[in-house]
Specification:
251 residues, 4-stranded mixed sheet, 33% helix, alpha/beta
């Protein structure tokens, strides 16, 4: 994996992206290893008939030795918004996904996402909710939500768009038919195998259920689908609208 120099001299920004690369790999590996034993969570995201193909996607990303597919190192990660797409709710996007050398742009909104593993240089780094998604907050809420997402899950979402790596596994391009947990759960599961956020939120629910040793209940519409970093527009008392990112759409 290559990070463009455009992240500049900030060691925290560089470390945050390096941590996210590791977190993305852990999310993939945990999903791959737990997949066969999962008889509950899978059916909320994918069609039963597609189980072999979905498993094959995670196995391809995990690589033969379960250390990440070797070709993932070809991806360039940058913060250069070459497509002028870093607006609204967009956290990241991939370009050149039909080539051998795709690029992922992490948008400013994406850099607000927290980590799972230790982020060097963070204040009180061991257990600071300012920097980490913690089981404490997730289990107290008890529901599937956008609060489960990390910068690592943002990267994993983008990996699934790499058509050169995954097209032969799925037989189609994995795109963005449904974004965010509300749209994913509302979508017919037969489209899950070609929807990036279906992989993302399946992995997140499986991962956090395992790490936090709990079972999460269905999301509460209008609550758990909200993005704390990207609030929707809302009316202002007396007239007018407070700007926001609008409804959740994008990783």
């Amino acid at each position: 994996m290559h990070m463009g120099n455009v992240f500049g001299p900030s060691p925290v920004a560089w470390d945050k992206v390096e941590t996210a690369i590791y977190d993305a790999l852990q999310l993939i590996l945990v999903t791959s290893r737990l997949f066969d034993g999962d008889t509950r969570i899978y059916n909320s995201y994918f069609d039963r008939k597609d189980r072999a193909k979905v498993k094959a996607v995670y196995d391809r990303l995990a690589g033969v030795c379960q250390t990440g597919h070797a070709d993932l190192r070809k991806i360039v990660i940058t913060d250069t918004d070459s497509q002028d797409d870093c607006h609204g709710p967009t956290r990241a996007y991939m370009v050149d996904y039909t080539t051998d050398h795709p690029r992922i742009t992490i948008c400013p909104l994406g850099m607000l996402r927290k980590a799972y593993t230790k982020l060097q240089g963070a204040r009180n780094p061991e257990n600071n909710p300012e920097y980490y998604v913690r089981c404490k907050e997730l289990t107290e809420a008890g529901h599937i939500s956008n609060n489960m997402t990390t910068l690592g899950s943002v990267l994993m979402h983008e990996y699934t768009h790499w058509d050169t790596l995954l097209h032969d596994v799925v037989g189609a391009e994995i795109d963005d038919r449904a974004n965010g947990p509300t749209q994913v759960f509302a979508m017919n599961q037969k489209y899950g195998k070609v929807n990036a956020d279906s992989y993302t939120f399946y992995s997140l629910e499986l991962f956090w259920s395992y790490v936090c040793k709990t079972t999460f209940t269905a999301l509460r519409k209008g609550i758990d689908n909200l993005d704390i970093d990207c609030p929707p527009e809302k009316p202002i008392p007396g007239g007018g609208v407070q700007p926001g990112c609008g409804p959740r759409s994008g990783t």
